[in-house]
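In keeping with the milestone schedule agreed at the kick-off meeting, the structural modelling team has produced records for the first pair of proteins. Each record is given below as a sequence line and a structure-token line. The laboratory manager (R.T.) confirmed that both were archived under the project's standard naming scheme.
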Amino acid sequence: MAGMRTVEELLSAAPEKYVITVFGAEPYGNYNRIMLSSVLCGDKTIEDIVINNRQWYLDNGITLHAGEDKTVVSIDRKKKLVYARDGTVAGYDRLLIATGSKAVIADVPGNNLQGVISFRDIIDVNTMLTYSCSHKKAVVLGGGLLGLEAANGLVSRGMEVTVIHNNEVLLNRQMDKHAAKLLQDELERRGINFRMAAKLKQLLGDEQGHLKTVCLDDGSDLECDLLVMAIGVRPNMSLAQQAGIYCERGLVVNDTLQSYDPSIYAVGECIQHRGDTFGLVAPLFEQAKVCANHLSAHGAAEYISLPTATKLKVTGINLFSVGDFQGDSSCETICFTDPALGIYKKLVIKANKLIGAVLYGDTADGNWYQQLLEGQENIMAIREGLVFGRAYV
């Protein structure tokens, strides 16, 4: 998504500047990975989430090499050539690396059994859809955004689902304890089971090498036909490392998204910028805009990392968080709760500025709170009505 958004921005800014060649390891044009959970739920089809099909590439004069055999396996920086697995070679004046991230797979015995998957791409979604038609019991490892979206989708497809989370608080990176409890109660009403503060010990398979049992550290077992691991991602920087491009936790770029090789840029989940790595789409699209600005030789823009808001893509559940929603002893906290309506709001204020927010049930003012936070605006004059939303101030 980050790479092709950069290409779109570049086509808009300087359509004639480059002859563009794109390599992609998946066998189609680019699609909206964020909407995979909607495909799993049945709200969307694969066709609905395709952003640019193959015809778009033809219409824009872009050469597309797509599929596993077209995966780029090496970069020759001296000759400025890239090589694909099937032997395809392409030269470059500027190279954009947007290899994304790889799902983390828990390092436990049995993690290579059939029926153990991640939740990253169309193939994973098709696997889940196939299993939901023929199997009954699913386990999702990880109570983060992706794990909960996978669990909700599998329940909606008729599977019995248990979520294993290593923390007592769901979405512990995005929610405080109160909001997380409201969320868990709602998901339990939808039929999802939870094993909180639990740790995976090992996976057992049958004689055919297919997963049948998930074993936890506390000695308990769960029957399981399908295990979805959703415990995070790591920047996919192996190609850059092989080419000798400087990497730390990700491919290191400067404020113009340029690597230590001035001919090579990078965007998306594969990069590290000022010590940060990325897993949400908003900063990726901002990176694309800045990178295209420099590739089109209009270069004045600089990428600045801002607090990114979190939203859950589960039908009927509204939640939003941004910034430092926990705060510390130097912060003030304003809370509003309406248990009957299932509404909870928490605002964290420091030195008369909003530094964090958690909203559950009513998220209409989320973008406004984010604007106040990013603008570091003094909220003293509107403090009394702040928690009730923009309409009241």
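The second protein of the pair:
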Amino acid sequence: MFSRLRSDIQCILDRDPAARSTWEVITCYPGLHAVVLHRPAHWCWTHGLKWLGRFISHVARFLTGIEIHPGAKLGQRVFFDHAMGVVVGETAEIGDGCTIYQGVTLGGTSLYKGAKRHPTLGKDVVVSAGAKVLGGFVVGDGAKIGSNAVVIKPVPPGATAVGIPARIIPSKDGASADATPERAKFSAYGVTLEDDPVSQALKGLITSASSQEHQIALLWQAIEKLSSRPAAGDCVPQDAQRSECFEAAKLNDLVGK
């Protein structure tokens, strides 16, 4: 029990630069309190003491602002960062090393009792502030859920989900974050500028337009060189674009690098 508590405290010290000491984490971090209180609640729930489990979780919700159903399963080193307003449903499962921020809902879309209604998070998943993960599907190891995303379908390992409804951005190397040779640096709130599919699409269009303009300019220059007689130059319009003026770098700066 104490080794697991030490592990929970250490994961907070590793992931939150605002945490300055073990004593501060123990006394001032509601995310840790919610995890610690969930364990007896879950034990009661799984041993037939349903009301007592719900009552402990209710007290934990009152004290921490984090609502975790006693039937939910939590792995090791789970960190609820800030986490006010987090709701974790009965059949939800949260894997080892996950980080969950404020306003997150791990909710269900089915009303059938006994069914798997809530999501399963793999290892090292980051669910950013305000995200809603709804349904009994799996979010793969090392995946990231962007702020305010609404996820209603499975997320592959290492991928990023952003938007409403969430769009899935595959992992750059096609592998889970925890399967790479060197462990990736933890990214607070899960999403970086490179994970925005809209900006990535715009940058792709800018690159394509710049390439096409370059090719057009080269074609007109080649046509002029092939015109051996002065009269043949008449086939080249006066307004033909012989040089590039597409400001790709400026547009990319506006979209974001």
